[in-house]
Structure formats: structure tokens, C-alpha cells
Specification:
Layout: H1 2-10, H2 13-44, H3 47-74, H4 77-100, H5 106-135, H6 140-168, H7 172-189, H8 208-220, H9 223-252, H10 257-276, H11 278-284, H12 287-301, H13 311-321, H14 325-339, H15 345-374, H16 376-396, H17 398-401
Helix pairs in contact: 2-3, 2-6, 2-7, 3-5, 3-8, 3-9, 3-15, 4-5, 4-7, 5-15, 6-10, 6-11, 6-14, 8-15, 9-15, 9-16, 10-13, 10-14, 11-14, 12-14, 12-16, 15-16
Length: about 425
């Protein structure tokens, strides 16, 4: 049955285009994200500065995420996503040019991180909100699983590829990423399906603030989503610190940029394995059980980073620790999208993304400071204790333990003002 759903999904031309664009963009993102901290370390020699720049790339969710959700529910989602890709291509190409000319500065990297973070915020919210319209509710968890698997497959070779691209030249990863954004924009332009429902009543003049409150009010009324979003945000604090932490541990073990890429390829192997079974697990197991198991496994495995004596075992730990996260992500996203009215999907998606990605930026910003202050290995144990506390809290939550399988609940009705026509994006 799963294979028939998958084959039917790949006959969906629009989903194939969407997935192809995501694959190309994932290659560019992998190269960019690994090269960025190495560039900052080369410019300043400071792990704190590297963490600062990485954090700025996601802190935009804190400042702009809720507004982005309201705009995504107002604007044409397809046009919005295309313009976001064009903007990110121009900004990333600017970094490559400045680096090639020897004029790249930390302020430019910071400004680029903020601006691309804003565009990424809008793009990701629109992409998630549009997916049910592209594939339909019955294939939603399958589509999410394939998206996770495709990203994981890129990550398997992407980490090593990113290290190889950086070895070819420091500008190469940024050029590749700029091209990937352009390819993604072209694939979106070729899609035909509408990215949101069109049968919405006339807008009654409500402002952005009112629309944001409607989205937040609806989301707050969903106890399972509310709790798991808060837990996910707390987990993202650890994850944000963990990326720079793993790079630092690898460098302390004498790993080259290529070996650092191999370590993150190990994480991608685990993530891809989890993604391949995510659809089946989402349809079979309750959402609450998936959440509890994920947190306990992470709490038990994360401290192993401090015990790994070399890059190969670091890669093995990364693979094992990354196995369950995609299953939880697919289950949680399927549940949220399935019960959220289309007219509220941008706002509901942005509310959860604002909290979780904002927490990620906090963790990334704090990671460099904490590594400098207490050392890499002690920080591993601190993160492990943090995950243990989250696992205990989630296990104790009765609403989560009793949560049904993702997508089995009936979607609530939208609020009166949430049914609106789609406005064209300016420009």
C-alpha cells in the first residue's frame, strides 16, 4: 500500500518539480552551511563569532516569523516562494563575489545572514502551508516522508561534497548555493497547481496584528501541538549549540574539512534511514509514543559525542542520534497540517517555526560562547542532561501520551476572519 501511494505521488508532476527544486537547494544549503563557520573562523579565529553569524541566519524567525505567516496567508504562495529564491540567490552570489575579490567582511556576512534569514522564513512557511494543496490530504505524510528522505539522501553525500567544494576554493560553496536557488525558482515557476484554496470570502479589512492573533489563538487551543512545540523549541536550543559543538570536537581531534563533511554525512545517513520509514511509522504509531521515544533516544545517545575518540566514531554517533528525528518531524507536521484550516496554515506554521527556529538561533548564538567558556566536552554533558529533562517532562504529559496517530483528528473550523481571498505578492 505504501509503495502504491509513493508511485502515485511521483506521477504528480507538481510534486516532482517541488521535490526536484528542494533536492538542488539542499545541495547548495549543505555546502553553504558548512563553509560559513569555516570562513568566519578564517576571518576572525573566534568560535563565538562563528556562532554569532550562524545564529543570525535563523534569528529572523524571532523578529519576522509571525508577520511572515500572516503575509503567506494573504499573498499568492507560489509567487512569494519564487521571489524569495531569487532574493537568496542574489545575496549568496554577493558573498561569493566579495570573497573572490578579497573584500569579504564580517559585517557583510552578518547582513547577508539576516536578509537571507528573512527570505528563508517566508519561503519555508509558504512551502509547508502549500504542501497539502500540492499533494492532497491522503498523501501528506507520504510526501513529507519523501521530502525528508530526499534531503537525507543529499546529506549522505552532501557533507563530503561540501568539504570537497570548500577544498576546491572558498568561493565555490557560495556559488553552488546561489545557482541552487535559481534552479529552485525555475522549478517553482513550472508548477501549475494552486498553492492555496481560492474560495475565500472577501477580506473585512482586518490588520496583520488581528490576523496574527487569530493564528496564535487557534494554535494555543490545540494542547498537544502547543506542548510538543514548546518541547521542540527546547530541543532546538540544544541542536543549535550541537552543530558548532560537533565541528569543534572534530577539529580538536584533528579532523580536516573533508572529514568534518564525512561526520555530517553520517548524520544524514541516519536521517535518511529514519525518513524512509517515517510514513509507515506515522500511520502505525500514535504521535505521543513517537515523541516520547524520540526524546529518550536522543537523551541516551547525545553524551556519546564526548566519548568518541575519532572522526569515524563521531560520524557513527551522528548517524544513530539522527535516526528518530525525521520520524517525529513527519508525524508532527502531518498532524498539524491535517487539522489546520488552509486559511490559517501560514500563521499556524509560522507560529511554531518562530518558536522553534528562534530557539535554534539562541542555541547557536550561545553555543560559541559556552564552548569558549566551559569547553566542548563539558557542554556535551550539559546538553545530554537537558535532553533527559525534556524526555521526563514529555513522558509525564497525559495529553501527549494519549495523542492519536497523526492526521486522524477532524480539522476544526476556521475563525470567521480566516477565510480570505488570495492577494498577489507586490511586484
Amino acid at each position: 500500500m505504501s509503495s502504491s501511494r509513493g508511485s502515485g505521488l511521483f506521477r504528480n508532476r507538481d510534486f516532482s518539480l517541488l521535490l526536484s527544486g528542494q533536492l538542488v537547494s539542499a545541495v547548495g544549503d549543505q555546502a553553504h552551511f558548512m563553509a560559513l563557520p569555516l570562513i568566519v573562523l578564517a576571518l576572525t579565529g573566534s568560535a563565538a563569532d562563528a556562532g554569532y553569524v550562524l545564529g543570525l541566519g535563523t534569528v529572523s524567525f524571532l523578529a519576522f516569523g509571525l508577520v511572515a505567516g500572516a503575509l503567506v496567508d494573504r499573498w499568492d504562495r507560489k509567487a512569494t516562494m519564487i521571489w524569495c529564491e531569487v532574493g537568496r540567490a542574489v545575496l549568496t552570489a554577493g558573498v561569493a563575489v566579495a570573497l573572490w575579490l578579497g573584500r569579504l567582511t564580517l559585517p557583510q556576512l552578518c547582513a547577508t545572514a539576516v536578509l537571507t534569514g528573512v527570505l528563508t522564513t517566508v519561503f519555508q512557511v509558504a512551502n509547508t502551508a502549500a504542501l497539502p494543496s500540492v499533494v492532497g490530504p491522503e498523501q501528506l505524510s507520504t510526501a513529507l516522508g519523501y521530502s525528508q528522505s530526499a534531503t537525507g539522501a543529499v546529506g549522505v553525500v552532501g557533507g563530503s561534497l561540501a568539504g570537497a567544494l570548500y577544498a576546491l576554493g572558498r568561493t565555490v560553496p557560495f556559488v553552488v548555493n546561489a545557482v541552487s536557488f535559481a534552479v529552485s525558482a525555475a522549478s517553482l515557476r513550472l508548477m501549475r497547481v494552486p498553492f492555496q484554496t481560492q474560495d475565500r470570502s472577501a477580506r473585512t479589512g482586518t490588520g496583520l496584528a488581528t490576523e496574527i492573533r487569530e493564528g496564535l489563538g487557534w494554535l494555543w487551543g490545540q494542547p498537544v501541538i502547543r506542548f510538543l512545540t514548546l518541547v521542540s523549541a527546547a530541543d532546538k536550543v540544544r541542536y543549535g549549540a550541537g552543530y558548532l559543538l560537533i565541528i569543534t570536537l572534530a577539529r580538536q581531534l584533528g579532523a580536516s574539512p573533508l572529514w568534518i563533511g564525512v561526520i555530517f554525512s553520517g548524520a544524514a545517513v541516519g536521517a535518511m534511514a529514519g525518513s524512509l520509514v517515517s510514513d509507515r511509522a506515522t500511520r502505525r504509531f500514535p504521535l505521543g509514543r513517537i515523541a516520547v521515544v524520540m526524546l529518550w533516544l536522543e537523551a541516551l545517545m547525545f553524551p556519546l559525542y564526548a566519548l568518541a575518540p575519532g572522526p569515524i566514531l563521531l560520524a557513527a554517533v551522528a548517524a544513530a542520534e539522527s535516526l528518530v528525528a525525521p520520524i517525529y518531524t513527519v508525524a508532527m507536521t502531518t498532524h498539524q497540517l491535517a487539522i489546520t484550516p488552509d486559511a490559517l496554515r501560514g500563521r499556524a506554521t509560522s507560529a511554531t517555526a518562530t518558536l522553534t527556529t528562534g530557539a535554534l538561533s539562541v542555541g547557536t548564538l550561545a553555543g560559541g560562547v559556552l564552548i569558549t567558556a566551559c569547553g566542548a566536552k563539558p557542554l556535551v554533558w550539559i546538553c545530554g542532561a537537558w535532553l533527559l529533562a525534556l524526555a521526563l517532562l514529555t513522558t509525564a504529559n497525559r495529553a501527549v501520551r494519549q495523542a492519536p496517530r497523526a492526521g486522524t483528528a477532524t480539522p476544526p473550523r476556521a475563525t470567521p476572519h480566516s477565510a480570505e481571498p488570495v492577494a498577489d505578492m507586490p511586484g
